[in-house]
Design a protein that fits this description.
single chain, 182 residues, alpha+beta, Nucleoside Triphosphate Pyrophosphohydrolase, 2 domains, 3 helices, 10 strands, 22% helix
Length: 182
């Protein structure tokens, strides 16, 4: 990597429940500057596919006080790999158990105000058990076609950023596989 474009003069971290806010004082070309960002644990987002369709979640999201369409997603726990987190979240939120899980890569949803990194997956699932949702999670789910997902995306009803990135990566992956269209 090239020489740093700035020097960190000082750094302060503020704990805010499940997030940390970093406030840095920088020196750039001899001038003082401030920069702050939110540290967020890495996460995953998974497109869950069953023989009967894709599992689409509808979850109540407190920050926007609204129900949203989403794919399975969550944070990676300490000591857990992204794939282990994906398998755990699938079972917790949908009750399905992943037979096959494919990594579609990762992305940064907004690397200006946050350092959050999300790894994307698709999973094939057949067997279903009970969900293990957290008591703060209000989630329902339904099995839908790929066409239905794309209708919801185009109408603006599906707004889950990680889900949109996952769907794009999934569609590109399936195009390359050609023999497994949705």
């Amino acid at each position: 990597m090239d020489k740093a474009l700035y020097d960190v003069v000082s750094s302060k971290t503020i704990k805010a429940s499940r997030f940390e806010i970093v406030e840095d004082k920088l020196k750039i070309d001899g001038r003082d500057a401030k920069y702050s960002f939110v540290k967020i644990r890495p996460g995953i987002c998974v497109i869950v596919e069953t023989p009967d369709g894709f599992v689409l979640l509808k979850e109540y999201r407190y920050p926007i006080k609204s129900w949203t369409y989403e794919f399975t997603a969550g944070c990676i726990d300490e000591g857990e790999s992204p794939e282990e987190a994906a398998r755990r979240e699938i079972q917790e939120e949908t009750g399905y158990i992943a037979d096959e899980i494919i990594c579609l890569g990762d992305f940064y949803p907004s690397f200006g105000p946050t350092d959050e990194k999300i790894t994307l997956f698709c999973a094939n699932c057949n067997e279903r058990t009970e969900t293990k949702k957290e008591y703060t999670e209000f989630i329902t789910h339904e099995l839908v076609s790929g066409e239905r997902i794309e209708e919801l995306i185009m109408s603006g009803e599906f707004k889950h950023g990680a889900g949109l990135a996952a769907w794009l990566k999934y569609r590109l992956y399936r195009q390359r596989m050609a023999d497994r269209p949705y």
